[in-house]
């Protein structure tokens, strides 16, 4: 298996070469040269593996199709070490929960629980594997890596919980001082591991991102201090997410003649892009429904064919904050497939078009219609009022409390259900992470998993710093050894 860049660079790379990289050298994203096809016999075998050996063994089967530069026994051991009941809270890892009304013969919807990992958001599903893959590959090379990033909540904590205590890896994570929820701050700052460095910047999230950009643009500094990232464009993260589409399918169906649809709360298009990959492999997915909040760049594209990135001033701060994006960083992968893998066209629209004009328009391109017809995409959006209403409705009708991001998914899924095909909504976080909005909707506090009792009172380790590149660099330099 070789990987190419969506913008046409001549290099072809293997999995472990792109594992520790971000963008391809030409600014494109990595994708496999072709998607491995899962035929009927293989799908039957995968279902048996899922039923008899569980999630970790299924993960090994799917990952093996894409990773041929890690010996099979090592890859299997990494999967078994990652996807345990101890880390993910249940033996199924991603249990399917039916939402069924009293007296009804069939569930109206299913929720696939992806948020029982250490930080209670779906990003743990991929990040936990990434931590083990990084440790494995860095040890094999005898190298070290310093992960440097900015977070407004979910990504940073998932990265820290995945990398804590790992050999050869350090994490330097900036966040806007005092702006994350008390629960999120406690989750991150209570990590006392030597290789985890929390840096609270006196400013907003954009200041943190600007600092990360300035440091990353200093190529000498980057090389000298072995700076890397773990953002959502990383191919290994996306690949890890493909597995739970298979696990959701096997739980919702009895035979491989059946189809399912998925609705996915979306921001950077990482989660739903994994669904696209699963569908390209031949998993019987009918519709892939993209659900956005008020930041509706993606919904706009699927409705109109126009992809228009937002400015900072047009990016809304919402009650589903992990979907508050101005552009969808993984979207280029899908558009590459949509345009029949025409790298020159991708370079023109994502490279030049977006940087000069801020948008591109495929509405007149006959290939745009294939997003819905050939690739099965639908979309919808949700507002704060609809989010609250959906949280109330799901609690009243099914007795289930859902978080704000999952609520965006359920709201949009309800507009796309069809009686023949089971609809699975990916549950991307637990309500406790966004307690204030739950209280606003339901007038009561969400349940807190026992391991999080009293975390706000734990000792914290965090360095507060002004938004100053020189100070940040010197802090990293001092703590890199
Ligand atoms: C990151 C995140 C999302 C959005 O996922 P993308 O891969 O960026 O589309 C949705 N919900 C939650 C809770 C998240 O943390």
Task: Compile the SSE list and pairings.
Layout: E1 3-5, H1 15-19, E2 30-32, H2 40-53, H3 55-64, H4 72-82, H5 85-88, E3 96-99, E4 109-113, H6 123-141, E5 145-150, H7 154-163, E6 169-176, H8 182-189, E7 196-202, H9 205-217, H10 219-224, E8 227-228, H11 235-252, E9 260-265, H12 270-281, E10 285-292, H13 297-304, E11 306-308, H14 331-338, H15 343-357, E12 359-361, H16 370-373, E13 377-381, H17 384-398, H18 404-414, E14 423-427, H19 435-442, E15 463-466, H20 469-478
Parallel strand pairs: 4-14, 5-6, 5-8, 6-7, 7-15, 9-10, 9-14, 10-13
Antiparallel strand pairs: 1-2, 3-4, 11-12
Helix pairs in contact: 2-3, 3-4, 3-11, 4-6, 6-7, 6-11, 11-12, 17-18, 17-19
The structure holds pyridoxal-5'-phosphate (PLP).
């Amino acid at each position: 298996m070789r990987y190419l860049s969506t913008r046409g660079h001549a290099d072809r790379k293997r999995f472990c070469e792109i594992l520790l990289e971000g963008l391809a050298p030409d600014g494109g994203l990595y994708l496999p040269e072709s998607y491995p096809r899962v035929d009927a016999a293989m799908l039957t075998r995968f279902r048996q593996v899922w039923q008899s050996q569980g999630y970790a063994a299924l993960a090994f089967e799917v990952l093996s199709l894409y990773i041929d530069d890690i010996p099979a026994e090592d890859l299997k051991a990494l999967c078994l070490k990652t996807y345990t009941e101890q880390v993910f809270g249940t033996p199924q890892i991603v249990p399917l929960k039916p939402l069924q009304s009293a007296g009804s013969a069939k569930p109206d919807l299913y929720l696939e629980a992806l948020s029982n990992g250490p930080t209670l958001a779906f990003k743990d599903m991929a990040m936990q594997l990434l931590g083990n893959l990084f440790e494995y590959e860095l040890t094999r090379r005898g190298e070290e890596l310093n992960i440097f990033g900015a977070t407004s909540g979910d990504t940073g904590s998932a990265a820290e919980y995945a990398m804590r205590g790992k050999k050869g890896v350090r994490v330097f994570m900036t966040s806007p001082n005092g702006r994350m929820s008390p629960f999120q701050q406690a989750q991150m700052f209570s990590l006392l591991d030597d290789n985890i460095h929390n840096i609270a910047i006196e400013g907003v999230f954009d200041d943190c991102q600007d600092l990360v950009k300035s440091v990353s643009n200093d190529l000498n500094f980057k090389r000298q201090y072995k700076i890397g990232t773990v953002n959502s464009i990383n191919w290994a993260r996306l690949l890890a997410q493909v597995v739970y589409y298979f696990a959701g399918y096997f739980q919702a169906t009895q035979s491989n003649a059946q189809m399912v649809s998925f609705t996915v709360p979306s921001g950077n298009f990482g989660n739903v892009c994994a669904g696209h990959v699963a569908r390209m492999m031949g998993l019987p997915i009918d519709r892939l429904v993209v659900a956005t909040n008020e930041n509706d760049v993606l919904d706009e594209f699927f409705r109109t064919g126009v992809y228009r990135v937002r400015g900072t001033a047009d990016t809304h701060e919402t009650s589903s904050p992990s979907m508050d994006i101005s552009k969808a960083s993984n979207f280029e992968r899908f558009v590459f497939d949509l345009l029949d893998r025409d790298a020159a066209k991708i370079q023109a629209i994502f490279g030049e078009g977006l940087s000069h004009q801020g948008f591109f328009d495929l509405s007149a391109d006959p290939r745009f219609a294939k997003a819905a017809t050939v690739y099965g995409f639908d979309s919808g959006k949700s507002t704060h009022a609809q989010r609250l209403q959906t949280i109330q409705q799901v609690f009243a009708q099914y007795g289930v409390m859902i978080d704000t991001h999952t609520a965006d998914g359920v709201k949009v899924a309800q507009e796309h259900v069809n009686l023949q095909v089971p609809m699975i909504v990916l549950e991307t976080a637990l309500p406790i992470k966004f307690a204030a909005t739950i209280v606003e909707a339901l007038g009561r506090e969400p349940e807190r998993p026992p391991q999080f009792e009293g975390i706000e009172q734990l000792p914290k380790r965090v360095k507060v710093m002004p938004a100053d590149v020189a100070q940040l660099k010197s802090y990293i330099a001092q703590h890199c050894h």
